[in-house]
Amino acid sequence: MRLKDLGRFLGRRDNMLVGYGIVTGLAGSGDSPRNQATRQAMANMFSQFDLTVPQDQIQSRNVAMVLITATLPPTANMGDKIDVNVTSTGDARSLAGGTLIMSPLRGPDRRTYALAQGPVAVGGYSFNANGNLRQKNHPTVGIVSSGGTVEYPVRSELSADDGYLTFVLKNPDSMTAERVASQINHSIAPGTASSLDAETVKVRIPYARAELNAYVSRIEDLSVIPDQSSRVVINERTGTVVSGGDTRISPVTISHGDIRVSVDTEFSASQPENVGIAGRGVRSLVIGNSDLAVEEGAQRIAYSFPHTTVSVLVSSLSQSHVSTRDVIAILQSIKAAGALHADIVVQ
């Protein structure tokens, strides 16, 4: 894999932006008049155009107050376009057909880095009539494609004061970090890089700072075989098992039985005769008769050969028509027995 896919240079990062605004043009699916924040936001917007409208006179359901989020890339110039996401903060039913009015997007330093405006694409709907509701996806969440305009340029500083670049791995691993440093030293020059820990690799920058971008792109294009730890990921809700093809299993014998318990209940009613003559307090009696049946199926036995992998074992169990739930239970039992040489991650 390329180093560009394994990690990043410290200092090159995305920046989060957030703001709030108003979506207008909704067909009666916006915030209700009892939403005071929406009425105050509308009054503040009108005041910017020399219109004085009291909050109690704003009763329209064609507007909705939204929060706006966006991601600013590591390098951005004035005029660059970015996508923005809008989410309803009030009781609006849908943002479909609405338009976001110009709103500032700020960073953690409270500086306005972008302005957002444009039509909102929802990708869903919500219709309600006479208590019948039809909804698709989440109509209170939308996106304004290329709706943000960068107003303040951003530059990422890669070089440090000590004259070294810092390469950070996405998945920390000591062997992978050592391989990265070795590959850089082999391709650039001996002594150029050294691994500090399982996540960080220090790279000496060239003397000509003007060639820093070409130097970084050359390093990111280098290929390294990353080392991976053996893991088996199990999702018990969906019955999904994911593992590496080379995850090893020691010789083990599996004996997995199947016991089924079923309960059948039959209800019968005792109807008294001459109910009208007997008077009040006389009613039918419902009696339930339960039948409990226990069935023990044939025992399934699977043998693993020496140096077996999880993929071979799962494939063999699937050919034997073993359910995914049983496969999960078998893998957990093998791990408990110490025969599965991998970490089990249960989601």
What do you see in this structure?
The structure is a single chain. The protein has 347 residues and is of the alpha+beta class. Helix content is 19%, strand content 37%. A hairpin with a 4-residue loop joins strand 11 (193-195) and strand 12. The chain is flat, with a radius of gyration of 32 Å. The relative contact order is 0.12. The mean pLDDT is 81.
Give a quick rundown of the structure.
This protein is α+β, with helices and mostly antiparallel strands. It contains 7 helices and 21 strands. The chain is flat, with a radius of gyration of 32 Å.
The major beta sheet can be summarized as: 6 strands, antiparallel, barrel
Please count the helical segments: 7
Estimated helix fraction: 10-25%
Strand order of the largest sheet: 2-3-4-9-6-5
Q: What key phrases describe this protein's structure?
A:
19% helix, 6-stranded antiparallel beta barrel, 21 strands, 7 helices, 4-stranded antiparallel β-sheet, 347 residues, alpha+beta
